[in-house]
Design a protein that fits this description.
single chain; alpha+beta; four-stranded mixed sheet; 4 helices; Spore germination protein GerM
């Protein structure tokens, strides 16, 4: 998907002389020794480009002394309303990034002193995990027995948290869950089916109407705003199905954002219901151009609220092939967001969401 940020690659040789695949953290079907084999040669490919236009690289070896000792990772935690929400937190640099991300989802673990107000970790205390990334993009998360002691009411939240945390890495497409080396076809307590593996296509914080026409709807993930116990806003992904009859998918997404979240959701959005698209959105080279009426403008000049831009960018870049958006009003550009960004030029999804700066 267009919004993933980090590619995990490994080049290491197992004691059995099996060469690990370069496309994965641990590669192949063989489970590597995490402390010896993998640490010898792991490359982290971060978003962002060098001056020559190629992806920048940060290597995990000791020769690169300039590398920071910490890095931001997206951890999907549970907020006070029960939503699974990304929080970008500073974690120590490690060669075992996927395993570390899951370890920071464990209640009572290293994440406890970092939790934003109102948020909680998702995995039961004492849970341990190993991970193995296969060549087809499936990552296997093998949990200890403590995993099965979760609150049954949290089962789908836990599954979504694990899946969305691991699929932040560019070459992770799907998650398979094991417990003590045994593949699970269903989640342990409420029997949620997981035998085919789980991906972002399964959704997050899923909301559906009581009556649903599967023939004329398609799944999408929209971003609305929540608020922490201390009043800090953050963005919440909500998966739903939208009616596409008579309209393109981008128009349907924008109209759903304008309509806003359900009234009992405890979520909000900063878009007036008078805002409307004047034309069908146009996509070219990954940039989606949205032409609105003047209702999208603030009271001072040609300025658009940053939170409106944020929700549009986050929601639309969930769509395959959309890398950025640009906004015009009545076909004219030269629009600024309230943070000074020129939003008539392509605005890309940020590297990290809910950092307190976005």
């Amino acid at each position: 998907m267009s919004h993933k940020k980090v590619k995990i690659t490994a080049a290491a040789v197992l004691a059995s002389s099996v060469l690990l695949s370069g496309c994965g953290l641990f590669g192949g079907d063989e489970k590597a020794d995490l402390e010896t084999d993998i640490q010898q040669d792991v490359t982290f490919v971060e978003d962002g480009e060098n001056d020559n236009g190629t992806d920048s690289e940060v290597t995990g070896d000791d020769d690169n002394k300039a590398v920071s000792e910490s890095t931001q990772r997206e951890l999907y935690l549970i907020d006070s309303n029960g939503y699974v929400v990304s929080q970008s937190l500073e974690l120590p640099k490690t060669n075992e990034v996927a395993k570390q991300a899951l370890e920071y989802l464990v209640a009572g673990g290293p994440v406890e002193g970092m939790l934003p107000n109102g948020f909680r970790a998702v995995l039961p205390p004492g849970t341990e995990v190993d991970v193995n990334l296969k060549e087809d993009g499936t990552i296997v998360a093998d949990f200890s027995n403590e995993f099965t002691t979760y609150d049954p009411a949290d089962e789908k939240r836990i599954l979504q948290s694990i899946t969305w945390t691991l699929t932040q890495f560019d070459n992770v497409e799907k998650v398979q869950i094991m417990v003590n080396g045994h593949t699970q076809n269903v989640m342990p307590l409420k029997q949620t089916p997981i035998g085919e593996g789980v991906s972002r296509a399964n959704g997050i914080n899923y909301h559906t109407a009581e009556t649903l026409d599967l023939m004329n709807t398609r799944p999408v993930t929209l971003y609305f705003m929540g608020e922490s116990n201390d009043g800090e806003p953050y963005y919440v992904p909500v998966s739903t199905r939208l009616n596409l009859e008579g309209k393109d998918k981008y128009t349907a997404i924008v109209e759903a954002l304008i309509a806003g979240p359900s009234h009992n959701s405890n979520l909000m959005i900063d878009i007036s219901n008078e805002v409307a698209l004047l034309d069908e959105p146009i996509i070219k080279d990954g940039n989606l151009v949205l032409n609105f009426n003047e209702a999208i403008l603030g009271i001072e000049g040609r300025i658009v609220s940053k939170t409106i831009v944020d929700t549009l960018v986050l929601s639309l870049t969930e769509q395959e092939g959309v890398e950025s958006i640009a906004i015009t009003v009545d076909g004219e550009g030269d629009l600024m967001a309230t943070d000074g960004t020129n939003v008539s030029e392509p605005v890309s999804r940020p590297e990290n969401v809910n950092t307190g700066r976005f």
